[in-house]
Amino acid sequence: MKGTTGLKVRLVPCLDVSAGRVVKGTRFENLRDAGDPVEAAARYAEEGADELIYLDISATAEEREAVLPLVERTAEALFVPLTVGGGVRGCAQAEALLRAGADRVAVNSAAVERPELLGELVRAFGNQCIVLAIDAVRKEGGWTLRTVGGRREWDRDAIAWAHEGVERGAGEILLTSIDRDGTGSGYDLELVRTAARGLSVPVIASGGVGAYEHLVDGARAGASALLVAGRFHDRVLTLAGARQALDQAGIPVRTAA
């Protein structure tokens, strides 16, 4: 089984960073320290991650850009693609992240506030460099958007926004279920399935992984990439174990670097 693009499924560790440290919580709250981002990035690269996502989760709320020296140090520790998000409000911030070593830039809150931003970023850097991050929460039979690290709720349908984002040029969707984040109960498979079924770009499933079978479920729901944070940070799950589980389930996965 493959994702919507026909490519092999990717395994993607995620570093949520605040105040220079990797943090992890539940449903975006009660954050705890999970280590040094540069050390974590180096470990994941050595263990064969397909790529890494680095999100400065407090940048937007603090009305600042991502901390570029830390991004640079993280990029230097890697030999796999790096996606960076946090505080991107225009092309200047995106260019700074790319110059600091990011291969792709993720944008979330600013794009919801001003959707034209996506087109501006795509024209400047190409759609292959632009990831639309969407934080979704279940509401009234569907999913609504939240931004600013889950602090602000919008009266907008998350799936409809994903479609609009792709129409505006986003090259990939990073789809996080706030309801499942940090719970270990598995991805919101209905959310993943609904998004992946109707979109022409890859979907990264995020939020809720607690066991290897959750990765298999996410791939079968149509995700092209499987994001894991806390369970990888705590070494409850490993990249090697994840690859083995997917292989045993007959799901093609990229070969470890």
Q: Summary?
A:
The protein has 10 helices and 12 strands. Strand 11, helix 8 and strand 12 form a beta-alpha-beta unit. Helix 8 packs across helix 10.
Q: What does this protein look like?
A:
By secondary structure, this protein is an alpha/beta fold. It contains 10 helices and 12 strands. Strands 1-4-5-6-7-10-11-12 form an 8-stranded parallel beta barrel, surrounded by 7 helices. Helix 1 runs parallel beside helix 2. The longest helix is centred in the first third of the chain and has 10 residues. It is globular, with a radius of gyration of 16 Å.
Strand order of the largest sheet: 1-4-5-6-7-10-11-12
Proportion of residues in helical segments: 25-40%
- Biggest β-sheet, characterized? 8 strands, parallel, barrel
**Total number of beta strands:** 12
What string gives the helices and strands in order? Answer: EEEHEHEHEHHEEEHEHEHEHH
Mean pLDDT: 91
Low-pLDDT stretches are 1-5
Gross morphology is: globular
How many helices? The count is: 10
What is Rg? 16 Å
Coarse structural class: alpha/beta
Please give the alpha-carbon distance between the first and last residues.
Answer: 21 Å
